[in-house]
Amino acid sequence: MKFGKVDHPERIDFTIPPDHPDTSVVLSKSSKNKPLDLYVGCAKWNRQDLKNFYPRGTKDELEYYATQFNSIELNATFYRIFPVETYEKWYDKTPEGFKFFPKIVNNVSHLRRLNDHVYSIMDEYLSVTALLKEKLGTIFLQLHNNFGPKNWDRVVRFVDYWPKEFPLAIEFRHTDWYNDAVVSQELYNLLEENNIANILVDTAGRRDLMHMRLTNDEAFVRYVGANHPTDYDRLEDWASRLKSWRAQGLSQIHFFVHQNMELASPLLSAHLIEKLNKDLGVALRIPKTLVQPKTLF
């Protein structure tokens, strides 16, 4: 994930901004007694990317990955709609309690840009995605960097179309969604009214995407490390913020770790899970890694 990559991450202020004032209002509407829905994972299970993770002799990467993590941010579905048999295999290879968080295919988000021709594609996409059954987590839509507020009507039509039985999160990347208070408030209202999560992206070169505005009781976080020692400190800060949100009513944490060079993603994920276990009083499995944390940078 090269989005937001910079040449000198040591020059970036990675401090997590204060919460948007309305985040606490949104969280206050959620029951503080709800069980915590906590999923942490990587963006892919490919052996070539996740070096220092798979033991020698591993025959099936997904099958092994799912013994270590409880979820995957399924980026593969961004590039094409897979056949029925593929979804059935993914379902069968993963244990009870595992969840997939698939990205909507780029024909919808990037090529056709939510125009009137995307809905037949979405019907096809959802019909096979639904084969993941109870292992299907939140589906997410990542819009193009240049998809700005002039496309507001397309966003509204898409939200109106969306079948409410599928949880949805959306990532808005164009800066104008956040630069104009009137535009951003209209967007936040739309997401709140339709129970759609507003994705937070933590990446070095786009700190404006750390808007810290939740629109329901789900924190869907896409974290992009910089292959730099600060990656670990940033994750500890995230654990603290998530603990604060949990105390205010947050009931869903869906956190996915990316790297510009993916080899450290399992290490970073393990570090975060260990911290969340301590801060939130949970017992999520800590993935095994073939090298020790903090030794790659």
TrEMBL record:
It comes from the Bacteria. InterPro entries: DUF72 (IPR002763), UPF0759_sf (IPR036520). This is DUF72 domain-containing protein. It comes from Poritiphilus flavus. The lineage of its organism: Bacteria, Pseudomonadati, Bacteroidota, Flavobacteriia, Flavobacteriales.
